[in-house]
Write a structure and sequence with these properties.
With about 130 residues, the chain is an alpha+beta fold. It has helices at about 25-30, 65-75, 85-95, and strands at about 5-10, 20, 50, 60-65, 95-100, 105-110, 115-120. It has 3 helices and 7 strands; from the N terminus they run ββαββααβββ. A hairpin with an 8-residue loop joins strand 1 (about 5-10) and strand 2 (about 20). The chain starts with a strand and ends in an 8-residue tail after the last strand. This is Ribosome maturation protein SDO1/SBDS N-terminal domain-containing protein.
């Protein structure tokens, strides 16, 4: 099992939790502390907003949130906003959580830095 660092954000008065994975916690903390010269790609491995299939809490099978849901939940339906904008909100306002997510999602670890490392986990491994 591998540990992962997630940033979890929940809208006000909601049980839904949205998740972004961070590869480099030190760089993330520097960025959050005001180092605006750090690109998100230096510490965000997978540019996707995730949530559990049950939409309640942060345990269970994780899946990518649709573009429409991002626009509705984060921006009140503003169609000019994208996942990257929502990721910034989660990173700025969310709480850090270290845990074992290896059972729940097939992660591509920062493909922007080259070919990346693909790890199949849980019941999808070996298929």
């Amino acid at each position: 099992m591998s540990a992962a660092t997630a940033i979890i954000w929940s809208p006000e008065n909601s049980q839904e939790e949205f998740i972004v994975f961070v590869d480099d916690v030190a760089e993330y903390e520097r960025w959050k502390g005001g180092a605006t010269d750090i690109a998100l790609s230096r510490f965000v491995g997978n540019f996707a907003v995730l949530k559990t299939s049950t939409s309640v809490g942060h345990t269970g099978n994780l899946g990518e949130v649709s573009k429409q849901e991002i626009q509705n939940v984060f921006f009140g339906g503003d169609k000019s906003k994208h996942a990257e904008d929502a990721i910034e909100i989660i990173l700025k306002e969310g709480k850090i959580h270290k845990g074992d997510y290896s059972h729940s999602y097939k992660l591509t670890l920062n493909p922007g830095r080259g070919a990346g490392s693909v790890k199949g986990q849980g019941n999808t491994q070996g298929r």
